[in-house]
Amino acid sequence: MSWKHSLWRTISRVAGRTAQHSGLRVLGYHAVGTAILGDRYGLSTPPDAFARQMELVRSGRFGRPVSLSGARIDGSSEISVTFDDGYLDTLTAAAPILTRLSLPFTVCVTPGLLDSGRPHLSWPELKELALIPGCEIGAHGLTHACLDALDDAELSRELADSRRRLEDALGRPVTSMTWPHGAASRRAAAAARAAGFTRAACSLYGLNQARREPLLLKRVEITGFDHERDFTGKASGTWDWYALRQSDPARR
Ligand SMILES: [Zn+2]
Questions:
Q1: How much distance in Å is there from the Cα of 180 to the middle of ligand 1?
Q2: Strand pairing partners for 135?
Q3: How many angstroms separate the alpha carbon of residue 17 from the centre of ligand 1?
Q4: What pLDDT digit, counting tens, does each position of 10-30 carry?
Q5: pTM strictly above 0.85
Q6: Per-residue pLDDT tens over the stretch 61-114
Q7: Where in the chain are the domains?
Q8: Interatomic CA distance for residues 226 and 113, integer angstroms
Q9: What's the 242 CA to ligand 1 centre distance in angstroms?
């Protein structure tokens, strides 16, 4: 764990006293258990910590658990569990815990990463995951590019092709996504809407109120460094001050 994480943890204990509590909270995960080579960001959450975190979500203290597409975003308290990149352990480690607790969840996958093999899901494994009750499959770009950096034509192609490849494989609509690298903007949101998406989450910390653009939803990252107190803080808003260090894609 870095000194920065320790500093942010300390700030959160003080800044969190003014946290907002009503709205859609989106939690962002990557791997659950898989060791990721050279990972400095805590992208892999240990399965036992993940299980405890999901028990806390199941308790209802952070709001009604919803998938991204099932979120009302009407100002009521909701919480959504999302995964990026499509690691195999989403199926083998995370899904059994979520199923045991009857929690909905959204897995946003990148067709180009699935094509590249381990540690990502294969296409048959993605289909297996999609059949689990409560599991929504969303897109996460076609090649994991920073979509906002692409010109209009390339942006539209990435969005449309990611959706088409997933829908062709799964035989059902794909309407949610997360932005690779959190790279988004109002222009990218408009392109995602034109490509048929209705929900998309980025990496800006915070709670989503009723007026929030549904294609630029705020989301807090849960890392493998997080203690239980960090998790409850992130889920209840005491880390939302972190958005002061970020740029809101809704203003770009
Ligand atoms: Zn990603």
A1: 5
A2: 105
A3: 31
A4: 877 777 666 667 999 999 999
A5: yes
A6: 999 999 999 999 999 999 999 999 999 999 999 999 999 999 999 999 999 999
A7: 22-240
A8: 26
A9: 20
Topology of 22-240 in CATH?
A: TIM Barrel (3.20.20)
Lookup: tokens for 27: 């939690």
> How far apart are the CA of 137 and the centre of ligand 1, in A?
14
Question: How far, in Å, from the CA of 181 to the mean position of ligand 1?
Answer: 6
Residue carrying structure tokens 């740029």: 247
Give the distance (Å) from ligand 1 centre to CA of residue 14: 31
Give 14's contacts (C-beta < 8 A, 6+ positions apart).
Answer: none
- Using the structure block, give the residue that is written with the tokens 């998406």: 197
